[in-house]
Amino acid sequence: MWQHFLGYFDAKYFDEDVTKTRSDSIMMLCFEDLKENLPECVRRIAAFMGFDDLTDTELDEVVHASGFEFMRANATKFDDHFVRSKMWKRCGIPESDWRGGGVGKVRAGGGKIGGGGAGMSAAVRDRIDAKWTEIMGDRGFDTYSDFRNAVNRLAKMGESLGVSASEVDPRWAPKKKKACCVVM
């Protein structure tokens, strides 16, 4: 999962082969930022997508439709029920076993910051933390908060200004890997 985060981070800020257009096609946001200031994030997303002229009425509509309560009330619009039902049919799972067919991305009790570890044992949490340290630690992100702060710091500096993250903190740069190819 964290390699996935770094893949976008690196493509946005470090990949020398990335064209300006490709770099400009990546916007990074954190869930916590959406929860803390959804209207501001919607405005940023709209501007990123080229909708600089979003009216206050349109903003209100998008913010309403992006809220947890709306998503929970319209859960089938935000889950994979269509894909899941097709997959189950192909696998021969009888409809009576589908239990509603929902994947539940908008779960009851969800939509909160910091709830991801609820119900996890200390051993599982420790393994997750160790994996974070292995993948993200040597990049200067000792915690998720460090990574979130870097994403937001770079965004504030101007997502389209060509700022290299290594100019801000050299530890954020990917380590150069050596490769060997043997052709026989």
Name its key features:
disordered C terminus; mainly alpha; 184 residues
Can you walk me through this structure?
The chain has a domain at 80-115. It has ten helices and no strands. The protein has helices spanning 2-13, 20-23, 31-36, 38-48, 56-66, 68-73, 81-90, 122-136, 144-158, 165-168. Mean pLDDT is 78; it is low at 177-184.
Principal-axes geometry comes out as globular
Report how far the terminal alpha carbons are from each other: 35 Å
Give the integer mean of the pLDDT values: 78
The poorly predicted ranges are 177-184
Q: Roughly how many Å is the radius of gyration?
A: 20 Å
Brief summary of the model shown:
With 184 residues, this protein is an all-alpha fold.
What is the strand and helix layout of this fold?
Elements: H1 2-13, H2 20-23, H3 31-36, H4 38-48, H5 56-66, H6 68-73, H7 81-90, H8 122-136, H9 144-158, H10 165-168
